[in-house]
Specification:
Blueprint lengths: L2 H4 L6 E4 L11 H14 L4 H10 L2 H10 L6 E4 L8 H13 L19 E4 L14 H4 L10 E5 L23 E5 L3 H8 L7 E8 L11 E3 H8 L8 E8 L12 E3 L13 E5 L1 H4 L7 H11 L6 E5 L16 H11 L4 H6 L5 E6 L8 H16 L3 E6 L12
Protein name: F-box domain-containing protein
Length: 406
Amino acid sequence: MPTTHLLDCNEDVLWLILGYLSQGDLRNADLREALSFVERTQLPYRDIWAAELRAGTIDAHLAVLLSQLPRLQDLRLSNKFYQKCDLVALVLRSMLCDSHSGQPIPGFSSTSLHQLHTVDLERYPGLRLAPETRNTECILPLFYLPSIKDMSISMPDPPEPEFPWPTSQPPSALGLRTLRLHHIREAHLGQVLAAAPRLHTLHWNWRYDPDTEDQFNTPTVNLDLLLPALLPLRDTLTTLDIFAFSLFSPRPYIPFPLHVQGSMHPLSTFPHLTTLTIPLVFFTGFPLPIPHTTTTTGLSHSLPPNLEALTLTDDLYADIDTEEPWDVTGHVLAVRAWLAAGAGADVRARTPRLRSVVLVLRGEDDEVCEEERAAREEIRGLARGAGIGLDIRRDEEAGVGMVWRG
């Protein structure tokens, strides 16, 4: 691959499909130029970097590219980025955390990556993470980007309770407005969000892998950890999208294994939150069938006062096979109970700006039973009486497939 193409310092937007780097050998002249650059940096890991360049690893060549694009504004990498990124992590740390104008790294621009405002490191949310692909330390330096505004990342939980930030003081990405976050669980979420104190939009994917359970990856949706993690964003957050799923496991689970701990009630104190997407079970828990009294109080007392658009999903409820029967109409009946509370007066009083409610269920519309069809018609009438537009649909791609929409 010609160096003059991907090392063009005038590139404003870089799309790297990393598989391209592995096609064919670099020309000798290109390799010599890259090796010369690495030697000039005088970085302590330059010998390892040079050896990896000679071996043709994607990680080493990507590290060279990123270090020579000072005007880069938009970085999007395919999931091959996650296969091995040790050198990228070291270089990002050198550029963003260790280098400064008084002592620049030879060969690096003092403003390297300072214009980078959008980062998209996407990974399919259902992907199981092998230990060698866990890339938390590679992701963390990105929070030090001075111009970052929009970031989509997949970041697994580190093995220790404290986040391994590369500096003694955690970053404060004051310009970061939109964050899409995969894989990390609620135990570490607060430490990540503390680095983005002015966030407006958060898309977070709760994820449980029953075959790799540890102190963080558990079958408990811990709202006692989730809500304190969100509370520092109370004065800035306008959009919150939470999706959740459990990876398939061949092991049978009887009884239903998932559990919700705590309450969503603190969300009612978020004055600027206008758009919310969330699994209904975050309000109700997992008893079968869903108790309508719990749903009524959980939703009514937990929704933000200025909410305008609410999307409820059946995420998690249908993720794990169980021999116990579960109420296929429970979600629809639960929404009916909430809308009917006080003849609709409760909904209007607590969420006067609510104009749209969407209930998304997995499956197909031709699978809907008569009881659910009757309940749908009833709650449409209840919603109209409360001045709310209501849409109920079954969607085969609901759940994980919705994570990156919006």
